[in-house]
Each structure stands twice: as structure tokens, then as C-alpha cells.
């Protein structure tokens, strides 16, 4: 089993998503947050299930989707991966932002 950790920035992404949704529906905000967290647990058993992030040329930076959201992670080693971002699928995220988040780990 692979250890899955979250960066502080990725956790803030999730909190921001939840806060935005909570403006219209606190219930749906909590459901969305829990669903994204639960979906990320799949990576403990299948760390390579995601596909490489299109914005990157590094196959160690991968993503899985949950609903409208991209869960972007870095396969740090065979024993550990780090979730570095959670973004809405329509939101642009640049290569430099992803690199910066990976380095801030």
C-alpha cells in the first residue's frame, strides 16, 4: 500500500472548493469534499491509475478526476505519493504552478 499525503496548498484548494459550494448548499459542499477525499484513497491501492497531466512532460505528475474536479498528484516514490492540487476541470493550471507546488512539498 502506498502512503498518500496532501500538501497544505492542496488541502486549501479543497477547503476553497467546499467554501464556494457552501455559499449555495452547505450539504452539497460537505458531500463534495468527502467524495473527493474518499476518491483519493483509491490511490493507496492503485497509485498509477491516473493518467499523466497534459500540462506536464513528467509522467510522475498524474491526475484522477472526480466529477468536475481534477486531483493532481506526484508519485514521489514507489511507497509515497503527494496530492499537490485539486482544481475544477475548467480552470487552467500552468506547468509552472504545478512545478512550484511540487517543490513546496
How would you summarize this macromolecular structure in one to three sentences?
This protein is an alpha+beta fold. The chain has helices at residues 8-22, 26-40, 42-45, 95-103, and strands spanning 3-6, 51-52, 61-66, 69-75, 80-88.
- What is the fold named in CATH at topology level? YaeB-like fold
Average pLDDT figure: 93
Helix content: 40-55%
**CATH-level-4 superfamily name:** RelE-like
Strand order of the largest sheet: 1-5-4-3-2
Order of helices and strands: EHHHEEEEH
CATH architecture: 2-Layer Sandwich
| Distance between the amino and carboxyl termini | 21 Å
Count of DSSP strands: 5
Question: Runs with pLDDT <50, length 5+?
Answer: none
Blueprint (SSEs and pairs):
Layout (H helix, E strand, L loop, with lengths): L2 E4 L1 H15 L3 H15 L1 H4 L5 E2 L8 E6 L2 E7 L4 E9 L6 H9 L2
Parallel strand pairs: 1-5
Antiparallel strand pairs: 2-3, 3-4, 4-5
Characterization of the model:
With 105 residues, this protein is α+β, with helices and mostly antiparallel strands. It has a single domain (3-103), classed as YaeB-like fold (2-Layer Sandwich), CATH 3.30.2310. The model has no long low-confidence stretch (mean pLDDT 93). It has helices spanning 8-22, 26-40, 42-45, 95-103, and strands spanning 3-6, 51-52, 61-66, 69-75, 80-88. It contains four helices and five strands; from the N terminus they run βαααββββα. Strands 1-5-4-3-2 form a five-stranded mixed sheet. Helix 1 (8-22) packs antiparallel against helix 2 (26-40).
Amino acid at each position: 500500500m502506498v502512503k498518500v499525503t496532501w500538501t497544505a496548498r492542496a488541502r486549501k484548494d479543497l477547503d476553497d472548493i467546499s467554501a464556494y459550494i457552501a455559499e449555495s448548499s452547505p450539504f452539497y459542499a460537505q458531500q463534495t469534499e468527502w467524495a473527493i477525499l474518499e476518491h483519493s484513497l483509491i490511490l493507496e491501492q492503485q497509485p498509477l491509475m491516473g493518467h499523466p497531466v497534459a500540462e506536464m512532460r513528467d509522467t510522475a505528475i498524474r491526475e484522477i478526476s472526480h466529477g468536475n474536479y481534477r486531483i493532481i498528484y506526484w508519485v514521489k516514490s514507489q511507497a509515497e505519493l503527494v496530492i499537490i492540487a485539486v482544481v475544477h476541470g475548467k480552470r487552467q493550471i500552468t506547468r509552472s504552478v504545478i512545478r512550484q507546488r511540487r517543490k513546496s512539498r
